[in-house]
Amino acid sequence: MILDTQEIYFYTQKGKIFAAFIFSFTFFMLWLTPCIYFFKEGSIIEGFSVAILPLAFGVSSLLVFKMLIDVKPYLTLTKETLIIKHPLKRAIHLKWQDIEKYEMWKANLTHSIDIYLADKGEYKGLHKQLFVRNRFMKRLQIDDISPIIKANFTLGLIKRKDRPKLLKELDWRTFRTKEEELIREKEKNRQLYGEEIADRFSPKKLFDQKKEEVVQLEQYSQINRKYILKITAISFIITVGISFFLYQTEGDNFYNESMPIMIVWFILYPIARIIYDIAGGFKLSFKIKESATPHLEKLELIIHVFILYILSFIVIPVGAVYLLVRAVVRRLLKQ
């Protein structure tokens, strides 16, 4: 039951922050060692060049540590306001009646939520310039883009078990008195700009946005004829690429020494890929695609070539055992 008179607190996920601290501190120590070595050896230029990295990771470690020891709630929902208190920033107080819409998006595999606000003086510090690509400007016939007021918070920092409750509370407290207004605005946008643009820019409840994402993930995760042909083609391309490299180094010995292994890899990769995708690869790939981040796309390439292809003989049995154990555990939890 949702009670808008109740004050509710949502806290950060300390496990994820602790992992980030360990990662940052480890790299700080790793880069600090060569930095000290260069200074001791009298290589001042090399020392200062390398010092940038331990300095960056040191500052990052301090900031993450501050987040780790912060015991205050990240989000506080009161009867009148939404309070966002990031451990590294000043608290932001947003009145429910001033929130116009939410927009959920991904960055570096983490969900964030933008909050669009009514243009009022008390939110002067949140002014941002809305950027729209030229093709959208022409299509919408917009000549001047007015400034908008926007705040945001990282949904990925909230404890996983609390996220569904948070989305319901935000929808309820923001839109329960604005249902008819949302319908009218969407209909107006549909008449002016068409169905596609109306769906893109009209305000949506967070629950509906999450539901759309789940549907898209289900469509993306289908194992069908097109998917089988795709992973077989990828296996063929990787096999040809590695075989060409090996042939250049081994010569005619390639046919007797490496070619049988390449044939085995060609057969095993699609099997390993299917197991990996079912185990979580579909979800990870979908997140990377939605994030549209180049370095993450390179990470996915590394996963496919150096893990799923070369180590397919390990991935297949380990992945199969994992899927079996996961299925048993889920069945026991349901019972």
Description of the structure:
- With 335 residues, this protein is α+β, with helices and mostly antiparallel strands.
- The chain is built from 12 helices and 8 strands.
- The strands form 2 sheets. The chain has a 4-stranded antiparallel β-sheet, with helices on one face.
- β5 and β6 (110-117) form a beta hairpin.
- The chain is globular, with a radius of gyration of 26 Å.
- 14% of the residues are buried.
- Mean pLDDT is 81; it is low at 129-146.
Helix content: 55-70%
- Counting DSSP E segments of at least 2 residues, the number of strands comes to 8
Strand content: 5-15%
- The structure class reads alpha+beta
Compressed to H and E, one letter per element, the order equals EHHEEEEEEHEHHHHHHHHH
For the sheet with most strands, the description reads: 4 strands, antiparallel
Please give the order of strands in the largest beta sheet: 1-2-3-4
Please tell me what the overall shape is.
globular
Q: Determine the mean pLDDT.
A: 81
Our Rg estimate from Cα atoms comes to 26 Å
* Parts with pLDDT < 50 across at least 5 consecutive residues: 129-146
Distance N to C terminus: 25 Å
Counting DSSP H or I runs of 4 or more residues, the number of helices is 12
Short précis:
The protein is of the alpha+beta class.
What is the topology?
Layout: E1 8-10, H1 14-40, H2 44-69, E2 75-77, E3 81-84, E4 92-95, E5 99-107, E6 110-117, E7 127-128, H3 134-140, E8 148-154, H4 163-175, H5 179-193, H6 195-201, H7 206-220, H8 225-250, H9 254-257, H10 259-291, H11 294-309, H12 312-334
Antiparallel strand pairs: 1-2, 2-3, 3-4, 5-6, 6-8, 7-8
